[in-house]
Each structure stands twice: as structure tokens, then as C-alpha cells.
Write a structure and sequence with these properties.
Elements lengths: L4 H8 L5 H19 L2 E12 L19 E13 L8 E9 L1 H6 L13 E12 L5 E9 L19 H4 L4 E12 L2 E8 L25 E9 L11 E11 L10 E13 L5 E14 L10 E15 L4 E13 L11 E11 L5 E12 L5 E2 L4 E2 L1 E12 L1
Antiparallel strand pairs: 1-2, 1-18, 2-3, 3-4, 4-5, 5-6, 6-7, 7-8, 8-9, 9-10, 10-11, 11-12, 12-13, 13-14, 14-15, 15-18, 16-17
Length: about 400
């Protein structure tokens, strides 16, 4: 083994031994080898929003709280990961840390956090493994994003800045085990088991009573399937059809939810390419069927609480830097426990987004959004409730 002159000099005067230096160099080499395949990335997400005539306003979609009529830091994400390589017994990990107001809305704080909001959250943290069965099964053990949904938890990965109502009634993250198998380039599926539907890390469905009263063996189950059009399909190549479900216990997350209970989320979505270069369309359907109490404590006769949302998307990449995105959505719910003011709520939403990436590594976009309540006045201003709400937003995200 070769040693540098400084090490040899220290050995000559008896300060260190060559044997100990060799062991130290060997350990350092192992650490350097492990770190060489680790990547660090992330983003800083900021925005400015204005909703005319609403004061602070009240929105229903995820990650919207307290952002009207001002400038906002949404979230800072720091990602540290070692992706799986191509070996049969590959291993790795991924950690996504959130800092900022959106971290509180994500809701992953563990039971040990005692409900505290500290502008910090673990979005994902899992060990990734591969077992050489067939084409290889990729596993995630820990905290990971949900298997259902058209939109990502990361705003920058979505065509629009604001989230859809469908995204807001979907599970966000789970603590459990997820396996994914790609049978071929056109077909893959995933299946997993988790503690609960909700995002709270290490939450259980059975403790403490009387809020959660499930058996110790009660768990949440999930599955999804993805179909991708092959290259032989010409202009339609790359189009995808996706379906999934999540079934288990929820502590009461989602739009207008009322306390703990069972729920099942159904999801179907598609993204379709067109003969026009740069033009794509998408569609998403979310259905939440829950059977929960009417308050914070279970009652003898739980009530049904159903919600569904359907959305259509259109995106056009006009140039390398300029793109246009549109989304239309209908959201409705049947909530007999909530009373006449919100029973059978129905909301329409139209969103238009222009994105122009002027700076390197920066997503910059302007967005206008209109929400309308058909069955009541759901958008709260400082003094009254409104049937319509308009919003103008600017979103700047730096990715590193």
C-alpha cells in the first residue's frame, strides 16, 4: 500500500504506525466508495398569490392554506439518495426532507411529535432493494409517496402550480412496504402494505382507544398498474393508462373529512400523446369512499362520506422554453354528517398556466384559477362567503 509523505514522516517519529494508517485508509476508501454513488438534489419553491376581494380567503385544495394575497415560501426540499443500479441484488435509499409551510400541510409528523408543527417534515425516507425474481422486484421499505394520483406531491413536477381537488382527497404518503415489478416495457404493477392510509409516520390503526379501535393486525393495502403504449404505435407511443387503489384506516384526512374510519381510494388516469408535436392530453378520476364517525370519537352508527373528482388536462410545449397548460375539474361530495351547509357540495374549477423557463434550472410560471361552488358559498372572505373565487399566482422554483 502506498502512503503519502506526511504519513511516512509521522511513522518515522513514532506518532503513528503504518498498520493503523493502512486500516484508516481502508476505512476511508470504503466511505468514499459509498458516498461516490450518493446524489444530493432538491428545490426551493416560492410563489405570490392574489385572490381579489377575498381578504385572506379560504381554498380547499392541498397546500393552499394562508397563501392568498401575499408572497410565500412554499417549501424547500433536500433529497439525498443512492439509486438502484443494474445488479441483481441492488440496494440503495432515498430521503426527501421538507422545510417550510407546506411541510406542516404534508402531515407526516409522527405520533411522537405530539401534533407539533415546526415547518419540517420527512416526505420520503426508505431503503430500496431489488430481488432477482423474473425481471427483478424493486422494494421500498419505510416512508414513500402514494401509488395513486395524476399529480405529484412536488409542485414542480405538475403541469399547474396549484393542486387539483382530486389530488387533495388522495393519500399523500405511507409508512410500509411497496414492491414494483416491470413485466416488460409496456406493463408494470405495484402492490404494498402500510400502517394506515394517512401520512403520519408510524401511525397505527389500533391505538389509542377510543379514537382508533382496530385490531393490531389491521393494515392498509394498495395496488396499482400502468400500461404504456410501445414505440410501434407511432405518434401515440408513450401514452399511459394508470389505475390503482388504497384501502385501509384513515384518521380523517381529505376535504371536509369527519374523524377516523375506514376508507378506500379508487383512481384511474391517462396521458395521451397526439399527432401534434408537443401536444398532450390527460384525464384523472378519483373516488373516495369512506365509512367514518361523525366526530372525533367513533359512534355506534358511522355515516357514509363519499367524494369524487374528475379532471381533464391539456399541455402544449410551444418551444424549448415556453409551454401552456390547462386543467378543468369537477369535485363533489355527499356528507350527510356535516349538515345542510356542506351536504352534496359541488365545485367547478378552471386553471390556466403559462410556463417560460428563462433562467437555467428555474421553473417560472404564471397561473390564473377560477373556482365556483354550485351548491353553496364555500369561499370565505373577511366578512362574507362567496360562490366564486379567482386567483392569480406567480410560481418560481429553483431546482438543484
Amino acid at each position: 500500500m502506498k502512503f503519502n509523505k506526511w504519513t511516512l514522516g509521522l511513522a518515522a517519529v513514532g506518532v503513528v504506525s503504518l498498520a493503523s494508517a493502512a486500516k484508516a485508509d481502508e476505512k476511508l476508501s470504503v466511505v468514499q466508495t459509498a458516498l461516490s454513488s450518493t446524489t444530493i438534489s432538491g428545490y426551493v419553491d416560492t410563489s405570490a398569490q392574489w385572490s381579489p376581494g377575498t381578504g385572506t380567503g379560504a381554498n380547499f385544495y392541498k397546500f393552499s392554506g394562508g397563501k392568498n394575497d401575499g408572497f410565500n415560501l412554499n417549501v424547500v426540499q433536500l433529497s439525498i439518495s443512492k439509486p438502484l443500479d443494474e445488479s441483481e441484488w441492488a440496494s440503495g435509499y432515498k430521503v426527501d426532507l421538507w422545510m417550510g409551510p407546506d411541510a406542516n400541510s404534508l402531515g407526516t409528523a409522527s405520533a411522537q411529535a405530539l401534533g407539533a408543527s415546526s415547518d419540517f417534515a420527512i416526505r420520503q425516507a426508505y431503503v430500496a432493494l431489488r430481488t432477482p425474481v423474473g425481471n427483478g422486484i424493486d422494494w421500498k421499505m419505510g416512508v414513500f409517496d402514494s401509488v395513486v394520483g395524476y399529480e405529484s406531491v412536488e409542485s414542480g413536477n405538475n403541469p399547474n402550480y396549484t393542486r387539483s381537488y382530486g389530488h387533495s382527497i388522495e393519500p399523500q404518503t405511507h409508512t410500509g412496504l411497496l414492491g414494483t415489478y416491470r413485466a416488460c416495457e409496456e406493463f408494470s404493477f405495484s402492490a404494498g402494505i402500510a400502517n394506515t392510509v394517512g401520512p403520519q409516520i408510524n401511525q397505527r390503526a389500533f391505538a389509542p382507544a377510543p379514537t382508533n379501535t382496530k385490531a393490531e393486525s389491521y393494515k392498509t393495502y394498495m395496488a396499482s398498474v400502468a400500461l404504456t403504449a410501445p414505440q410501434s404505435w407511432g405518434w401515440a407511443a408513450g401514452s399511459t393508462l394508470y389505475g390503482g387503489l388504497v384501502n385501509g384506516f384513515s384518521s380523517g384526512s381529505g376535504l371536509g373529512a369527519n374523524g377516523p374510519g375506514n376508507q378506500i381510494n379508487w383512481y384511474a388516469g391517462a396521458t395521451v400523446a397526439t399527432p401534434v408535436t408537443g401536444l398532450k392530453f390527460g384525464a384523472a378520476f378519483d373516488y373516495l369512499d369512506s365509512y367514518r364517525s361523525s366526530g372525533t370519537t367513533p359512534i355506534l352508527a358511522p355515516v357514509g362520506f363519499d367524494q369524487w373528482a374528475v379532471g381533464v388536462y391539456g399541455s402544449y410545449q410551444a418551444t424549448e422554453k415556453l409551454s401552456f397548460h390547462a386543467r378543468g375539474e369537477l369535485y363533489t361530495r355527499n356528507d350527510p354528517a356535516a349538515g345542510s351547509t356542506t351536504d352534496n357540495a359541488q365545485l367547478w374549477s378552471l386553471t390556466g398556466t403559462v410556463q417560460y423557463d428563462l433562467w437555467q434550472n428555474v421553473i417560472s410560471r404564471l397561473e390564473v384559477r377560477w373556482d365556483r361552488g354550485d351548491e353553496g358559498e364555500y369561499f370565505v372572505s373577511n366578512t362574507t362567503s362567496l360562490r366564486n373565487q379567482f386567483m392569480l399566482a406567480a410560481n418560481i422554483i429553483y431546482k438543484f
